[in-house]
Design goal:
Number of domains: 3
CATH topology of the largest domain: Rossmann fold
CATH superfamily of the largest domain: P-loop containing nucleotide triphosphate hydrolases
Shape: elongated
Strand order of the largest sheet: 9-8-10-11-7-12-13-14-15
Structural class: alpha/beta
Length: 387
């Protein structure tokens, strides 16, 4: 492997001095000029290595196409790791030099219309195939340039498939079906990689086919299996710093599109103010995802995002209690398995601030137990179903 790497670097250097199309013939000429062996096997090995380095995702391309892969992670030179739903594992693919990782990161980001260099050492883009790419150059990233690829599922899971995968139990599946069917407003919370987007997409796939779903996202990830979905995607500024379209503007546009269900893929900023406002203007069944380490952390997380957008603490909590009916909290175990861990309702504490109250908890072995708000959740579902 080391000999091939040395040949590749030498041929790359020679080809750079005389620009032209990458062909096996030019590779063979460069090898001869360097006094290197030019057997067919050597020429093809060097050619394929260079070709992978300038086409698509390079050496990562086969990993992005493997069934079940959700994340591909590069932590500088060395072995690439992947996640197939059970935690990170070695992929068998290596990138041997920091220069190779840096070139790959810059090419991937460029395909998403952004630049990556010492003046702009990090970027987050969506690749043409829908893969989300985040990259940070060394030395900001250690031990080398970091590339994180989130691979979109080509087709969404159904709720029944989530049950088969262990994300839902029989009881929790029926409960979330009732939440969606009753047009309750809900947020899916959880940590990074806990399966928030996967659950939300599956829930949207269970929405009545007569309803119109308008999805607003920073990066297109939600792909519900539903016949009437309109997606709006935010856009970063171009290389000149112009042309940005932010999530907050898209939420306002979505309200003018006659949505039966307004969905915000993931609330990360001041768009939370517009989402809460929308949910408080008669748009039943609105939903979204939000990063929170527990259901109990949701009010504080909403407060922080709302304060940054200029909405006061009391107003943020009041809007939250009025807008959101149910919290579905996803957890990820030490074994890497993602599952629905808690269903909670929002309530107002004695100090007037919002708090979550558990309606149902799902243990690690799949047992569902009723919480203090179980009766109120069932009453809420029943009242909405008969409207």
């Amino acid at each position: 492997m080391g000999d091939v790497t040395a040949l590749v670097e030498e041929v790359r250097s020679r080809l750079a001095r005389s620009p032209g199309d990458l062909t096996p013939h030019r590779v063979a000429e460069a090898l001869r000029a360097a006094g290197r062996p030019v057997g067919d096997a050597t020429v093809l090995a060097v050619y394929e290595s260079l070709r992978r380095d300038v086409v698509g995702a390079g050496p990562l391309e086969p990993l992005l196409r493997q069934p079940g892969v959700t994340d591909v992670l590069v932590n500088g030179p060395g072995e690439v790791r992947v996640d197939r739903g059970a935690g990170l594992e070695p992929s068998g693919v290596r990138i041997d030099s920091e220069d190779s990782v840096r070139r790959l990161a810059q090419r991937l980001v460029a395909t998403g219309g952004r630049r990556l260099d010492d003046a702009a050492p990090y970027a987050d883009v969506r690749l043409p195939d829908g893969t989300r790419c985040h990259a940070v150059l060394a030395p900001i990233a250690r031990p080398g340039t970091s590339i994180s690829l989130r691979v979109p599922r080509r087709s969404g899971f159904t709720l029944d498939q989530l049950r088969e995968a262990g994300t839902l139990t029989r009881e929790s599946l029926e409960l979330v079906r009732l939440v969606v069917g009753s047009r309750l407003a809900f947020l899916v919370t959880g940590g990074t990689g806990s399966g928030k987007t996967t659950l939300l997409a599956s829930l949207l796939g269970a929405v009545d086919e007569a309803e119109r779903i308008v999805v607003v996202e920073d990066a297109s990830e939600l792909r519900p299996d539903h016949p009437h979905v309109v997606g709006l995607e935010a856009r970063p500024p171009n290389l000149e710093g112009a042309g940005a379209v932010v999530l907050r503007d898209l939420v306002r546009q979505a309200l003018r599109m006659r949505p039966d269900r307004l969905v915000v893929g993931e609330v990360r900023d001041g768009a939370v103010v517009d989402l809460l406002a929308a949910m408080n203007t008669g748009h039943e069944g609105g939903c979204g995802t939000l990063h929170a380490n527990s259901a109990a952390d949701l009010p504080a997380r909403i407060e922080a995002l709302a304060l940054a957008a200029g909405l006061g603490r009391e107003a943020a909590h009041s809007q939250l209690v009025s807008a959101v009916d149910v919290v579905l909290h996803m957890v990820r175990g030490r074994d890497g398995r993602r599952r629905l861990g808690e269903v909670a309702l929002l309530d107002r504490a004695s100090d007037g601030l919002a708090r979550t109250v558990t309606a149902a908890a799902v243990s690690i072995d799949g047992e569902l137990s009723a919480g203090p708000a179980a009766g109120r959740l069932l009453d809420l579902i029943e009242s909405r179903r008969h409207r």
